Amino acid sequence: MSNVKTIGCDNGHFGIKIYAGLGKKHSISSRCRIGGSSQTEFGSNGPDSSEIVFSTDGELYTTGSLQSEVTTFADYPLSPINRVLVHSCLHQAAFTKGPEYKQLDLVLGLPYAQYYSKKHPSGRNEDLISGMEKNLLVPVQNIATTEDQFTINNCMTVPEGMAAWFSYIVKEEVTNGRVVPVFNEVRGQETTVFIDIGGGTTEVVTVAEKKIQKDYSGTISQGSHRITEDLRRYIYELTDVSSISERKMHQALLSKKINVNGEVIDLTQAIKSAQSKLIHKINGFTDSLLRDVKGDIDNKVLVGGTSIDLKDELMNWQGVSLSDDPLFENAKGMYLFKKYLA
Description:
Elements: E1 5-11, E2 15-19, E3 25-29, E4 32-34, E5 52-56, E6 59-63, H1 80-92, E7 103-110, H2 112-115, H3 126-137, E8 141-142, E9 151-159, H4 160-169, E10 170-175, E11 178-183, H5 185-189, E12 192-197, E13 202-208, E14 211-212, E15 218-220, H6 224-238, H7 246-255, E16 257-260, E17 263-266, H8 268-290, E18 299-303, H9 305-309, H10 311-314, E19 320-322, H11 329-341
Parallel strand pairs: 1-7, 7-9, 12-18, 18-19
Antiparallel strand pairs: 1-2, 2-3, 4-6, 5-6, 5-8, 10-11, 12-13, 13-14, 13-15, 16-17
């Protein structure tokens, strides 16, 4: 169907990233609360903070809310919260406002450890994959408007490590007014390790001979959320508070300070310490996983939003490079796979 638009959708626990070709991309934080809401008590600010109310399966959900639900539970990919957040990101992207984006095909991803399973003959976690795809096909309605509505016709899922590889070897260029793929044959033949540092986990995926090498790929439960929690504990120890919103913690990480009950606390060293601790754990895990194939590795490529935040220290690792677009690399690869490689 030529009138169906393909969109790569990295629907993560901490953020939703979508990509639709030639720089058409958008992201939001995974903030959603159960129930309808106008603006929350404290208001909100930032590029993805506007509250939007959606209806699905007879329930109301509000995205962009400061009082958001936890998204780190195991069944998050199968949940109405994930479904609503994906729709919210699609609604907020400027490029989806056009009439050509009424019918959509989504290409989704799952981390290496979730995508594969020895319980199924195919080697894939069929229950989780099909469950996530069916979940996102359930209709969602933006209750504020009858315009800019779209239908998700179909979903497919790829492992995120391979998605990063597709983005690494394929680029789109405009030639004589036409969009054409350019394949990097040299990169396609090399052995490349993708280190995807996300919110809750870090994925290390080795691709050689155009396949994921499972013996040299793995997951560690360490990501940017670990930095946030270490910093939160540090603040609690210094003050008499026992609760700080995710919004305020995010601002504290950016500004390297926080105002608690009128007292401004400098967080520069605490943040640096938490970051160093995370980097040390990821480096140790990566070295251990790749010990037997070090001599065969051609490239180590950093992807994921956290790799941007930690790039100054991460770039000290031998043989490591930062990908062209770390935050959107998986979503971009999902899109490219469906368009040119599927």
